[in-house]
UniProtKB/TrEMBL annotation, chains A, B:
Residues annotated as domain DhaK: 7-330
Enzyme Commission numbers on file: 2.7.1.121
InterPro entries registered for this protein in UniProt: DhaK_1, DhaK_dom, Dihydroxyacetone_Kinase
Molecular function terms, GO-annotated: phosphoenolpyruvate-glycerone phosphotransferase activity
Gene that this sequence comes from: dhaK
Protein name: Dihydroxyacetone kinase subunit DhaK
Record keyword Transferase present: yes
Sorted UniProt keywords: Kinase, Transferase
PANTHER family: TRIOKINASE/FMN CYCLASE, TRIOKINASE_FMN CYCLASE
């Protein structure tokens, strides 16, 4: 394993310290318990707090800022944050309008956010994201995994919260977007967790892992490496099958997110986007909004995921509204 | 080699088509000759045209848009674009205020942009970037290589051009920034050029290439892998030596750019940033502006570069001004 680090157990602290310095006009970091929060504490709004294991950057600390999260609680790499982090974050950022936790559906995250919620002295609710249509139940998960669709939930609910909406409305929008969002990932290589020092799984030059999780969890099956268009065809088919099975209302306008898992060049991500957009258009969808880049990573995995969110006017409005974070920024 | 592609010779075309669709409110792409230009043609300003081999995304197409480039001419991967591309781009985007070419100092790029300049029927000038302090003369270069500092030149000169400044002023600012900017890169792994199908160079788990170029050109020396702080110490020392030798005016305010070469996670880039910012502060510099991420890549190389630009009021003003491109966006 070759990585830029000093000591494995100091890696997160040093990286967060760098993050906080590089974006000091936007965020601040507290340690022990560790959380990242906005530099300018928001007033009179539902506060949004997310978190999870590190290694998925810019998720979640990179989405702290105006129009998105109020705080993020990073655990060690691929390790859930602990309830004291969520409690300290909530204590620091809450106003009188309640706390919304946005949690990716992994057993450890769910358990620790639930424990924090039970101890929380403020009105609160939780949105669980589970957009990964690849598999039901996985290494760390009962049900479906939460992956890159979480970014869309955090962006849009962040916008609604900024407008002064109440806790129930924020939770309802988050749940709606999660229902209307479907993702699937594919790995060309494993990731390497620093503390483990070796790749999470073995994979040959001739293979891909279709439906891989963002921690390197097994997907649907190990398949033969093939042309990008053929890989994308299977990913788009899985997503469309998932979306159509839900018989959701909507005109077919979609947000298409092509997400890099860490080591895949932008040139390849745009090539995947090109194939996915053409195939989705041929199936009757209109790609109304697009996002291409590294938004929910799996450390240094070569691979990518495709996420489709079935838009409606409410989601579109909140997607387009201004956001100012380290990882997403427009309109300000 | 495992990459997301269909046929190697179609990779650039498909990727650019995806790029143009994903950012269709911002840019458009023309093929044969190939160039990317703004959707809204600018009026009454010096137009900025850059280009170079592909594989460094988001450089340069990702920097086309308001406040930065008017057009970018992408060659095949690590292959210079041809003069007909620059001529077609200039014909499409020019106004009556002249054309400024921004060219990284590689022999092929320099030659082809010079040939285009000779045939150009408009007033024109060229800024050559050569911020890489690692080596003088290299595989594809006489003199110093142009690397990630090019982003700072394109951003700031783009801002000045937007304000209506004339060609001489734009060239002067570009030359000034290039003089005040110093970079050095380090590779943990090689990159793999799709058409070659195998890594550009061999490197063991125990080695790093200090001073590597963005095409995998040899750097200063092959060194032992070691702690990130120690690697950064040598990189910062090289940059500070280079800057101090020039005895430039300035108060010591700097822009610090930590750039990923393609496969390095954000978590490691922020750790490098943390070390570099502390070391530069200890040497008397004030890190006034920061940028951390993948801005000038070397396909899928694991590695990073550090760039320092010695700010003055003029550069700072143009760095902070609004920009709206696929790769850099703020203030709009």
């Amino acid at each position: 394993m070759k990585k830029f680090l000093n000591q494995v157990d100091q890696m997160l602290t040093e990286s967060l310290a760098g993050f906080a310095t590089a974006h000091r006009e936007l965020v601040q970091v507290q340690f022990e318990p560790t959380f990242v929060s906005r530099k300018q504490k928001a007033q009179n709004k539902v506060v949004l707090i997310s978190g999870g294991g590190s290694g998925h950057e810019p998720l979640h600390a990179g989405y702290v800022g105006k129009g998105m999260l109020d705080a993020a609680c990073p655990g060690q790499v691929f390790t859930s944050p602990t309830p004291d982090q969520m409690l300290a974050a909530a204590e620091a950022v809450h106003t009188d309008k309640g706390v919304l936790f946005i949690v990716k559906n992994y057993a450890g995250d769910v358990m620790n956010f639930e424990m924090a919620a039970e101890m929380l002295p403020f009105e609160h609710a939780t949105v669980l994201t589970s957009d990964d249509c690849a598999v039901v139940n996985s290494t760390y998960t009962s049900g479906r995994r939460g992956v890159a669709g979480t970014v869309i939930v955090e962006k849009c609910v962040g916008s609604l919260a900024e407008s002064g909406a109440d806790l129930a409305a924020c939770k309802a929008l988050g749940d709606k977007i999660n229902l209307r969002t479907s993702s699937i990932g594919v790995a060309l290589t494993s990731c390497t967790v620093p503390a483990a020092g070796r790749p999470t799984f073995d994979i040959t030059e001739a293979e891909i892992e279709m439906g891989v999780g963002i921690h390197g969890e097994p997907g649907r099956r190990r398949e033969a490496m093939r042309a990008a268009d053929a890989i994308v065809t299977d990913m788009v088919a899985a997503i469309v099958h998932d979306i159509e099975a839900k018989q959701l209302p909507g005109a077919g306008d979609i947000l298409l997110l092509v997400n890099g898992l860490g080591a895949t060049p932008l040139m390849e991500l745009y090539l995947i986007y090109h194939a996915a957009a053409e195939q989705l258009t041929a199936k009757g969808y209109q790609v109304t909004r697009s996002l291409v880049g590294n938004y929910t990573t799996a450390i240094d995995m070569a691979g990518a995921s495709i996420t489709v969110c079935l838009l409606d006017q409410e989601i579109l409005k909140h997607w387009d509204s201004p956001v100012h974070t380290a990882g997403l920024r427009w309109g300000c």
